[in-house]
Amino acid sequence: MIETMGHLFDPLTLAAMVAGIGLVALFQNGLAALGRAFFAIGPLCTADPSRDRDAARAAMLKIDQVAQLRGLSCTDRVKTANPFLTQAARKLANSDRIDLFERWAAQSLADRAQRHASARNAWLSIADAAPALGMAGTIIGLVGMFAAMDDPAALGPAMGLALLTTFYGVVIANIIAAPVAARLADLSERELAWQQEVIDGMLSIARREHAPVRRAAIREVA
After folding, report:
1. How far is residue 131 from each of residues 20, 50, 134, measured CA to CA in Å?
2. What pLDDT shows up at residue 54?
3. Residue ranges of the chain with pLDDT lower than 50?
4. Between 178 and which of 95, 125, 127, 208 could a Cys-Cys bridge form, CB atoms 3.0 to 4.6 Å apart?
């Protein structure tokens, strides 16, 4: 078994496959998206949207209390470990108008969703390219076999190339790239959901705090 597994590892063939797949993904997505895709591997293993959501809900209760007691301008005093929530609380405290905060929030979530999509699409490109390049390697190996029919010693390496490229393509696509893309899609959906919940809560607080100001202004005009 160990000897068989040893035959499955050919550094040169694997390096050629990885290089070809990387070039295809680079041409399809660009350098920035490809770099973002590989940097996403870290959060892929450590991200916990459920934990972040629960922490955000607890922080929102504090922000609501601070807004009621001291006003919106003090909401950024609530300390949170999440950068998005900290930035949102700061924007809420410093925004003179609700529509400005709402515009920032919509743009921020849209930009975040676009970044998530670019990383996910890069992994999907890898998943699509790997089997195709594996099939190309298989064809090259078969051509080498037919060209060396009169030389039995050359048949083995050509057949090995034909089989290994297919194997590497299947492994890279179905065991690495596709699961990573699916995981990133799930994390993105859950993260954006709790962040939208935070924005909706902050907008509700802002509208409530600005309501007395609007009523006073109407009375003054009347």
Report:
1. 11, 35, 5
2. 93
3. 213-222
4. 127
Q: Which single residue is written with the structure tokens 């949170």?
A: 80
Give the tokens for residue 169: 């393509």
What is the separation of C-alpha 159 from the centre of its chain, rounded to a whole number of angstroms?
38
Spatial separation of the C-alpha atoms in residues 53 and 82, rounded to whole Å: 10
Q: Contact at 8 Å (CB) between 108 and 89?
A: no
Structure tokens at 13: 């063939």
What is the rounded CA–CA span in Å between residue 50 and residue 26? Answer: 33
Pull the structure tokens for residue 108: 């921020």
d(CA 162, CA 10): 12
Model pLDDT for residues 106-123, shown as the tens digit of each residue: 999 999 999 999 999 999
Q: Which residues does 13 contact at the CB level (< 8 Å), separation at least 6?
A: 137, 161, 164, 165, 168
